[in-house]
């Protein structure tokens, strides 16, 4: 199976590295000094589950050099998905499958605006990892896991084949009954902690120590549930409680990736997190004052960060 991992940051670097370590045909799209380091020394992954180093079949910044893939794993940020989808059109074949693993609730929809439905899967992942330096990914928390499936939740032969590939690579993975619900369950967590984390600029354990901020997170999550329900996603109060069990169990010092981007002055996924809830709330006539407050407070910083893309 020809596998293309587009984006070799914390997500793509870890999972792409595991696939390459298993001896699979893996091509990687990376940029700049990171690409140079991978070409020269290979990709190094320092992990709480064991360190390893791999050399991909191909490392490039030019999609046209890549063999037609059977599977494309997207390791880019959610705001980059539309542009990447357009770039991928030149190499996607009749049977190519594109699997998004980004934070956010509508990455699949973004792909469907560009690519044929037959080429698009739905997915998410759990991993706390990041690019430590060019050529090196550092995995610091959670047993990494991929959850994925067909858009219509059917148990297809091709989904079973991909599961087999992930199993071969030692990647914990699952095919749920309702992939859209699973995407929103993770979205519920990441959106609840990210924006407030970006505003306060402290770790999750410090946020939850504040009674006021803890209540603010609960209100953020409640608004998200209301929007999800309006869209036909069966999020419940029980799911909110489960998210807060995760929040309460976060080790000291943990931050969300979007929060780290905001704090470092990088373009972030703000528009795809709190911004998305605000816009969907307007669409369905649902008030989202807490998400709007977070979004509007962070939006000027996001505008400044995005000037780097111009």
UniProtKB/TrEMBL annotation:
<dbReference type="Pfam" id="PF08546">
    <property type="entry name" value="ApbA_C"/>
</dbReference>
<dbReference type="InterPro" id="IPR003710">
    <property type="entry name" value="ApbA"/>
</dbReference>
<dbReference type="GO" id="GO:0005737">
    <property type="term" value="C:cytoplasm"/>
</dbReference>
<keyword id="KW-0560">Oxidoreductase</keyword>
<dbReference type="InterPro" id="IPR013752">
    <property type="entry name" value="KPA_reductase"/>
</dbReference>
<protein>
    <recommendedName>
        <fullName>2-dehydropantoate 2-reductase</fullName>
        <ecNumber>1.1.1.169</ecNumber>
    </recommendedName>
</protein>
<dbReference type="GO" id="GO:0008677">
    <property type="term" value="F:2-dehydropantoate 2-reductase activity"/>
</dbReference>
<keyword id="KW-0566">Pantothenate biosynthesis</keyword>
<dbReference type="InterPro" id="IPR013328">
    <property type="entry name" value="6PGD_dom2"/>
</dbReference>
<feature type="domain" description="Ketopantoate reductase N-terminal">
    <location>
        <begin position="3"/>
        <end position="152"/>
    </location>
</feature>
<dbReference type="InterPro" id="IPR008927">
    <property type="entry name" value="6-PGluconate_DH-like_C_sf"/>
</dbReference>
<comment type="pathway">
    <text>Cofactor biosynthesis; (R)-pantothenate biosynthesis; (R)-pantoate from 3-methyl-2-oxobutanoate: step 2/2.</text>
</comment>
<dbReference type="GO" id="GO:0015940">
    <property type="term" value="P:pantothenate biosynthetic process"/>
</dbReference>
<dbReference type="Pfam" id="PF02558">
    <property type="entry name" value="ApbA"/>
</dbReference>
<feature type="domain" description="Ketopantoate reductase C-terminal">
    <location>
        <begin position="178"/>
        <end position="302"/>
    </location>
</feature>
<comment type="function">
    <text>Catalyzes the NADPH-dependent reduction of ketopantoate into pantoic acid.</text>
</comment>
<dbReference type="InterPro" id="IPR036291">
    <property type="entry name" value="NAD(P)-bd_dom_sf"/>
</dbReference>
<dbReference type="InterPro" id="IPR013332">
    <property type="entry name" value="KPR_N"/>
</dbReference>
<dbReference type="InterPro" id="IPR051402">
    <property type="entry name" value="KPR-Related"/>
</dbReference>
<keyword id="KW-0521">NADP</keyword>
<comment type="similarity">
    <text>Belongs to the ketopantoate reductase family.</text>
</comment>
């Amino acid at each position: 199976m020809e596998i293309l991992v587009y984006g070799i940051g914390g997500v793509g670097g870890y999972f792409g590295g595991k696939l390459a370590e298993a001896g699979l045909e893996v091509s990687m799209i990376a940029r700049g000094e990171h690409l140079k380091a991978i070409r020269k020394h290979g990709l190094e992954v320092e992990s709480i589950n064991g360190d390893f180093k791999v050399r991909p079949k191909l490392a490039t910044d030019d999609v046209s050099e890549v063999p037609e893939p059977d599977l494309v794993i997207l390791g880019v940020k959610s705001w980059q998905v539309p542009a990447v989808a357009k770039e991928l059109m030149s190499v996607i074949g009749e049977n190519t499958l594109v699997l998004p693993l980004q934070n956010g609730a509508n990455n699949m929809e973004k792909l469907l605006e560009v690519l044929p439905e037959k080429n698009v899967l739905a997915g998410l992942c759990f991993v706390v990892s990041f690019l430590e330096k060019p050529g090196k990914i550092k995995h610091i928390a959670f047993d990494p896991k991929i959850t994925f499936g067909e858009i219509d939740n059917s148990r297809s032969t091709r989904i079973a084949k991909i599961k087999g590939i992930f199993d071969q690579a030692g990647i914990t993975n699952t095919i749920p009954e309702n992939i859209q619900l699973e995407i929103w369950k993770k979205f519920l967590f990441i959106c609840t902690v990210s924006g407030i984390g970006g505003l306060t600029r402290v770790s999750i354990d410090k946020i939850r120590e504040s009674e006021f901020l803890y209540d603010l997170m609960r209100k953020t999550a409640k608004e998200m549930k209301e929007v999800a329900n309006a869209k036909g996603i069966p999020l419940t109060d029980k799911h909110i409680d489960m998210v807060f069990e995760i929040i309460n169990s976060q080790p000291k010092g943990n931050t969300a990736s979007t929060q780290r981007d905001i704090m470092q002055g990088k373009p972030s996924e703000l528009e795809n997190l709190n911004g998305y809830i605000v816009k969907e709330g307007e669409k369905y006539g649902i008030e989202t004052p807490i998400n709007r407050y977070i979004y509007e407070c962070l939006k000027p910083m996001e505008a400044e960060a995005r000037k780097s893309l111009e």
